[in-house]
């Protein structure tokens, strides 16, 4: 009887340790100086939400850089981080922000003094939000569909992907028109036409 109680206690301890294995993990954060902007705050919260769904880790959102050894997402516009060029020096062209337009963004992982940063920058907050979704779609395998979001089946440990890219939409304005109930649409015509 005593042996059985000891085995059960060991099993419970193992379950507790496995379930709470991230309690003592290295903290991760999202850094954004523009949290007073609703779109930028939304971008940070979306990244936080999806990273929790992907890795079971809650990232803190801060407007002030606190720890130098914490893996960090840095989200912001060129206006909010005038010194951003020093992190990405030589990685992008000098006039990259002019080339981005209103809806393009850059994704860049850098290591600054032993500190991993994944920088998402753009010319405005909406484009930063597109950068968050682009990062999740292209590098964390999250699918965004009209029927809902599709997450990877297995949760994975937190990581910052190796990335260095400039993305801009092919068209001037992003979006699509799924409704076909307007004149000259596909629903106006039949197979006989």
Describe the fold and architecture.
This protein has five helices and eight strands. It starts with a helix and ends in a 26-residue tail after the last strand. A six-stranded mixed β-sheet has the order 2-1-3-5-4-8. Strands 6-7 form a two-stranded antiparallel ribbon. It has 193 residues and is an alpha/beta fold. Helices cover 31% and strands 20% of the residues. The model is unreliable at 17-24 (pLDDT under 50). It has helices at 2-19, 38-55, 84-87, 96-100, 125-139; strands spanning 29-31, 60-62, 72-77, 105-112, 115-122, 143-145, 148-150, 164-167.
The portion of residues forming beta strands comes to 15-25%
Q: Give the number of DSSP strands.
A: 8
Distinct helical segment count: 5
Distance between the termini: 82 Å
| Major sheet | 6 strands, mixed
SSE-based structural type: alpha/beta
Fraction of residues in helix:
25-40%
Strand order in space, largest sheet: 2-1-3-5-4-8
Mean pLDDT: 80
